[in-house]
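Pilot study result, target chain (504 residues):
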Amino acid sequence: MAEKTKMIIEKDFKIADIDDRLYSSFIEHLGRAVYDGIYEPGHPNADENGFRKDVIDLVKELGVTTVRYPGGNFASNYFWEDTVGPKEQRKKRLDLAWRTLEPNEVGINEFSKWAKQAGSSVMMAVNLGSRGVPDALNLLEYCNLDTDSYYASLRRQHGDKEPYGIKLWCLGNEMDGPWQVGQKTATEYGHIAAETAKAMKMMDESIELVACGSSGVGMPTFGEWEAQVLDQAYDYVDYISLHQYFENRAGDTADFFASLDDVDEFINAVIATCDYIKGKKHSKKTVNLSFDEWNCWYHQSAEDSETMEKKPWGLHPHLLEDHYTYEDAIADGLALIKFIKHADRVKIACLAQLVNVIAPIMTEHGGAAWRQTIFYPFYHASKYGRGAALKPVMKTGTHKTSKHEDVTDVEAVPVYNEEKQQLTVFAVNRLTDESVPFEVDLRGFEGYKVVDYQALESNDMLAVNSAEEEKVKPVTKTDYTITETGFTAELKPASWNVFVLAKS
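Predicted structure:
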């Protein structure tokens, strides 16, 4: 058995209140995310609008607060006008990002209704790839204004009297990417982002805006892109985006878990850049972070490339349908712990994506909807991770992997919900072959006792779920010991652990 990990929890060691939007997700017009995903008219569980009620139930179970829409790469050639009004009059368009045919049966009118049914708000993306300021303003007017003006009146003509009231907007998507329609330099994007943001806030000062960061930490533009963009747009935007996907192509589980430490480095680098521009501008305003794309993504890449190359312009083909393993669930749990630890600056995080496309929820055409392995860490964090993130005082062993040094054996974070008088500890044992004794000192929470202990545990790192069987799902555990100062437990190898405590 490995060296003991000890955590001391103090109520006053507060990092920040956790923004509920940390538990957000993403639906793009890509593959079967929309069609055959949230929308399948004729399905036994479809409602009068064609939305699958079984999928909505699972989204509600996850507790998703905000859904980013309609992309993603799809947004950079998005003609929003084609997605509204009578369906029989809508244009079918070729989506260049994913080389598919977009029928526009689901658009802003429909998606706003779906989000309301799912209990989520919408994070809307505007097209700054092939379009610009006028189109963003027209879309904002259509969605949010109740004026006697053309686009607000058009929405009412389309049957939606009340504005949608969308408060969070993305200024394009991954605009430094060579795969992007309308790719831009940092100078070009910084200018259009600043001008679009300025105009949008002139129209609706209640909205918040997310500027595009670099497409990824490995991009040659990373760092300098953020600095140049913020140098132009700092005064008008509220967040800058981060995108990161995790992968284990080498089949090295230990290093896969260790690679989640790269998330910390990424976040810290972007915070440093934001604060450099803040200082340079002598500003009192703080720009925070929107980690609006994150997940494991690598299983289906080769098949996806072949489909788009050899069978283009299909109608909602199977794309990016990664079937997630047990170890993917542990990796996602680690990512969630990282976000909670950075709750002072990471205010939004979108699991990419939500249904069928690199998603926690999968559907069968005409059949069942089911939970992938990665469903459960998000479910636990969303359910129990509301309140204040507390800074853990921890002593834990360390190890090294093939590509990382000084990897902590245990990653953990406590969350205190004062309103519910509830304390939750999320913990991952990153060791793949050893259990870790885990001792928690509750000196700041006298009288608190463990009332629930849920865990994901498996000896099979490649176990997957299916519509027929959930091989990976939480188990309720009772093998913890109450002590005079807190509790102790044994964290199984490569496990995700959730301790819920209440005052007795």
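One observation from the pilot: Residues 119 and 410 are 34 Å apart (CA to CA). A full batch analysis is planned for the follow-on phase.
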